[in-house]
Specification:
This protein is an all-alpha fold and 459 residues long. The chain is built from 20 helices and no strands. It has helices spanning 15-37, 55-66, 76-90, 107-110, 121-145, 153-165, 167-175, 179-201, 207-218, 225-239, 242-261, 265-282, 294-303, 312-339, 342-359, 372-384, 390-406, 419-433, 439-445, 453-458. Helix 10 (225-239) runs antiparallel to helix 11 (242-261). The radius of gyration is 23 Å and the shape is globular.
């Protein structure tokens, strides 16, 4: 079932061939580096010892749940002991990380990894890598659905190429993080949102059911509570309060299962998480330069990467910048609601997604892959316009600069300036400025929009 187009298709833009060349070059570099590493000494080759170390705490938490020790997953010292025991069993003699291996997600997310602990760790890691590749395919398919249905094949095929050639994807697969799961869920919720907007524009029934479904799917992001909260709020602004009800349903179901398996786990999560984050952020050297938040920007600028609590000046500037971004987004949302057309709503949602990393207290660089959803929404918008304005070209190059900077191997910790946060703030500001009912949007929004296929078949 194809997504109903909100605009007519346009010829391929000049930027598309350039992106194909850039992505092809990056893919060639990554493949060459991977093959080269296979000829390195055994301890440096790509394998269970050199990749997937972020999977280890997840495997340990799943093992603890499976063995009836779920009430200990928020004891970082207990998790670290399990992680080191797993490492010594499977990689004897190999040096292990000396830092704490804390579990940072809600308890129910550990249930996902419990079945994998029936396998030896190297095999379980292989299964998780395969799952991540399947999630990559699903996420790319959903991202393509965010484009106009009649977009050129060159544009649609560019989506998976850009995703797998991006350095956030490389970092995700190297660390074996859960970013691909987040991307698939977020993209799925956005596809439902676009269908709801299409039904509203064509005055077709079923928009309320789609709003509930959007919230139900977005609620699956609750394994990352802060990401879920911001996403659900943004979707509710566009689709309506029923998104909140759908998310509450999903959250209640997950909570019920969690409390049935580990009674009191929710309270333990709320009680134990602040001290864990305090140990990670303030009592050891932390990678503030790899965080893409306003918090990390001000912390690095004023305090550098030194250990210790966050200073008052950092907190004041952080809160002030959060308020500025929030007010600007709220004003843009008011403009989008006044415009009452799906194109402006899509523009606001894309801008809100770009702002999400900035307003969160915790957002690592590999999760920047989630911005692929905003890029897909923007690509559909730009491909629909008859002409490309100067501001559109500047925005396109700002996105290229943000992506290119992710490929830089150096750390900016000694610079005390979080360049990624600066570039993302620039992109976000330019995306928010586009949320205005200009003539091109009004002209497109007033065009007759074809109803979704299932509505036509019912008629």
């Amino acid at each position: 079932m194809m997504l109903s187009p909100l605009w007519p298709a346009r010829p391929v833009r000049p930027m598309v061939p350039l992106l194909w060349k850039i992505a092809g070059g990056v893919l060639l570099f990554v493949v060459t580096a991977f093959v080269t590493l296979q000829f390195m000494p055994s301890q440096e080759r790509v394998g269970p010892r050199t990749i997937g170390n972020d999977f280890l705490p997840s495997f340990a938490a799943g093992l603890m749940v499976r063995e009836g020790q779920g009430d200990q997953i928020y004891n970082p010292y207990a998790v670290t002991r399990v992680v080191r025991a797993i490492w010594e069993i499977h990689f004897p003699g190999a040096e292990a990380s000396s830092g704490l291996a804390a579990w940072l997600n809600p308890p129910f997310f550990a249930f996902l990894f419990a079945p994998l602990t029936g396998l030896p760790y190297p095999q379980a890691l292989g299964v998780w890598i395969a799952i991540n590749f399947c999630l990559t395919i699903a996420g790319c398919a959903l991202l393509i659905r965010l484009l106009p249905a009649n977009s050129p094949l060159a544009v649609k095929a560019l989506v998976p190429v850009l995703v797998v050639s991006s350095f956030p994807f490389v970092r995700t697969m190297t660390h074996q993080q859960n970013t691909m799961l987040s991307l698939a869920i977020l993209a799925g919720a956005l596809v439902l949102t676009m269908r709801a907007l299409a039904r509203e524009a064509s005055e077709s029934p079923g928009r309320a059911r789609l709003a509930y479904a959007t919230g139900t799917v977005a609620g699956l992001l609750l394994f990352k509570p802060q990401l879920a909260a911001v996403t659900i709020l943004a979707l509710a602004v566009v689709v309506g309060f029923r998104v909140l009800l759908g998310a509450i349903y999903t959250g209640a179901l997950l909570l019920a299962v969690q409390e049935w398996v580990i009674p009191g786990a929710a309270w333990q999560f709320l009680l134990e998480m602040p001290p864990i984050l305090d140990r990670l952020h303030e009592r050891q050297n932390y990678h503030w330069d790899r965080h893409v938040t306003l918090h990390s920007f001000w912390r690095m600028l004023i305090q550098g990467t030194e250990t210790g609590p966050t200073g008052l000046a950092v907190k004041v500037l952080w809160m002030a910048s959060l308020a500025a971004v929030g007010l600007w987004l709220a004003r843009a949302a008011w403009t989008a609601n006044r415009a009452s057309n799906p194109i402006t709503a899509r523009r606001w949602l894309a801008a809100a997604i770009c702002a999400m990393p900035l307003v969160m207290p915790y957002f690592m660089d590999y999760d920047l892959l989630l911005l692929a959803t905003a890029a897909a929404l923007l690509a559909g918008d730009l491909n629909a316009k008859a002409t490309t304005s100067i501001s559109d070209r500047r925005l396109s190059w700002a996105w290229v600069a943000l992506a290119a900077w992710q490929a830089m191997p150096m750390s900016t910790a000694s610079w005390r300036v979080n360049i990624t946060a600066v570039l993302l703030t620039l992109v976000t500001a330019m995306m928010i400025r586009r949320v205005k009912p200009d003539a091109a949007v009004e002209e497109t929004a007033t065009m007759k929009i074809e109803p979704p296929r299932d509505v036509r078949m019912a008629a």
